[in-house]
Amino acid sequence: MHVVVTGASSGIGSAIASNNYMVTWNHAWNSRLRTQALAGYQKDDFLQSSPYRQDDVTTFGARVSYDFRRWLLIGAEYTRSNRNSTESFYDYKRNLYLLTVGATL
Fold first, then answer.
1. Most CB atoms closer than 10 Å: which of 15, 25, 44, 93?
2. What's the CA gap between 60 and 41, in Å, rounded?
3. pLDDT in tens, 34-52
4. Cα separation of 72 and 66, whole Å?
5. pTM for this structure?
6. Residues of 25-63 as b/e, b for ≥16 C-beta within 10 angstroms?
């Protein structure tokens, strides 16, 4: 758990009190193939906001990476985020797909 109170509130309220919870599972299937699964929850309270605003964000995702060569890594990732706010204007659902390539000299 990670709790943060920050004065930067993006113009809504005087500050944001944020509670973050994240669980990850990493697994190396062999010396080249690795996977990661993650799940998270974040609760943001906008202090002294009018009207009162609270956001709940849930995140789920999976990542796979493969060391194609000693110097070349390829990977793919999917992340799903969903924010529910007491102010419906700020609600969203997001699907993020990534393909990655990493090279070293």
1. 44
2. 9
3. 999 999 999 999 888 888 8
4. 9
5. 0.77
6. eeeeeeeeebeeebebebebbbeebeeebebebebebeb
